[in-house]
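Catalogue entry: protein

Sequence with per-residue tokens
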Amino acid sequence: MSLINVDDDQRWVPTHVQVTVLRGRGLRAKGKHGTSDVYTIIQVGKEKFSTCVVEKTTSPEWKEECSFELLPGVLEPEGRSAYPQGSSDLVLTVMHRALIGLDAFLGQAIIPLDKVFQDRICMKNEYICPKW
């Protein structure tokens, strides 16, 4: 956690974000028998984390956590311009693991952390609907 001096007031600015991927539901079937072998890639900036693969399901449960360090100033309007666009986005990409060939894309959700922080939104226990 860090403090930024704003008009002689001290303001809290997060330095890390912790993400918990609980479950998926209603996913498309890409594998045999009407199911998928599903995993999620979680990304903030250039850092990535991948959940384990849950086999033969369209409603996987992971209950996996990861933490990302945020770039200094990336959540502040005046600091964002120093970084490439999307540097403050939390990107969740759901994939089907293919045994042969490339893994198949199932969906993606993008959460702009700068907007969440600026709007002071608390996103505990939120279901995020990915874009297909």
User: Anything to note?
Assistant: DSSP finds two helices and nine strands in the chain. The chain has a mean pLDDT of 85. The domain at 2-118 is CATH 2.60.40.150 (Immunoglobulin-like). The chain has one domain: 2-118.
